[in-house]
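Query form — protein AhpD family alkylhydroperoxidase

QUESTION: What is the three-dimensional structure of this chain?
INPUT:
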Amino acid sequence: MEPRIDVMQNEFGTKLAKRMYAVHALVQPALPHSTQNLVMLRASQINGCGNCIDIHAKEAAAEGETATRLNLVAGWRHSTVFTEEEQAALALTEEATRLADASEGVSDETWARAAKYYDENQLIALVTLIAMINATNRMAVTLNQLGGSYEPGLMEAVVSN
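ANSWER: The structure tokens for AhpD family alkylhydroperoxidase are given below.
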């Protein structure tokens, strides 16, 4: 399978990526980086986005995330390595990513669990992060952006130029 379009080599694609990254930059100070990495990795796993899994796993590892935690993200409910706050964020990520699979969308129970650990600004940041990674996953999967060759720091370098 070949990429349909190399977004980062396309002028319009690069402009769009920079704007999407700017939204992420607004979210970054509101949430722990480790939580952001876990959320982006989990949504990317659910959506089957190899490119984004590659990016977020490698960026998380470069920021000091352990291999054990990265390897257990998909099975977070059945592991002991995530805090209650991280588990709440991962539960929200799963339900918000799987909206089409759930008749009621994000359950009141999952929302209350997240609201127990995150204030309103953090919840807005978390929901925005989930929405943005889902949009990015859908673009990358549709355009056949392939995972495997990403080097940590590359995304930051491309969008900051």
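ADDITIONAL NOTE: The chain has a mean pLDDT of 94.
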